[in-house]
Amino acid sequence: MAVRRRRGASALRKLVRERARFLRSFLSGPRQVGAVLPTSRATVRAMLDLAPVGAASCVVELGAGTGPLTRDLVGRLGPQATALAFEIDPALAEGLAAEVRDPRLRVVADSAERMGAHLNGQRPEVIFSALPFTSLPKPVRDGVLAEVRRLLAPGGVFVVLQYSPFMERDLRRAFGSVQRRISLPNVPPAFLYACRP
Fold first, then answer.
1. N or C terminus: which one in the chain shows less Cβ crowding within 10 Å?
2. Other Cβ atoms closer than 10 A to 121
3. Domain ranges in the chain?
């Protein structure tokens, strides 16, 4: 009983630290973070279910934040797969790299626009994004979408999380197939898009 209580207290402290780190990043750069709370577990599972992560040899995550998706993503990766988690906020990237230690994962503190510079010629079959597209300047938003289209492997999928439907038109213009789901358990509710060329 005491062991279970200590584990519960440890998990609670970890959650409080993660949320505090996320909130600090939001307050210092709300246009870069785009949300007050990390993505919920239910939404993370819904995002992962939209892509064949286990069969992919390379997976990329854009806007990893404190790592709610990253942690579960690593659990679904194949043994020989690689994953890159991009997070432009150096403090969040450093915290994520220290917390999620897996030889298949590399945390990159750089802009999603420079994704190709870090892939060493690989073309990811799956790209996840929690970038706040609607708050990014249009040239940055267009640059990221162009880079995703250029680098995504044939038959690949781009899974996008947004907190409004405003990006849907841009996604439909950029991709041949766009499926939409809504994840109500998230705060706020999240729009999930699975985009294919």
1. N
2. 5
3. 2-196
CA distance 111 to 144: 9
Q: Which CATH architecture has domain 2-196?
A: 3-Layer(aba) Sandwich (3.40)
Average the pLDDT over each of 28-42, 43-57, 114-128, 145-159 and give the range with the smallest value: 28-42
- For residues 137, 26, 83 and 122, what is the CA-based torsion angle, rounded to 10 degrees? 20
In this structure, the number of other CB atoms found within 10 A of the CB of residue 38 comes to 23
| Torsion sign, CA atoms 38, 105, 141, 180 | negative
Instruction: Return the amino acid letter for 98.
Output: A
List of residues 6+ apart from 38 with CB closer than 8 A = 18, 19, 22, 65, 66, 68
Query: What does the pLDDT average to over 154-165?
Result: 97
Tokens 């510079």 map to which residue? 117
- Structure tokens, 75: 């659990």
* Mean pLDDT to the nearest integer, 84-111: 97
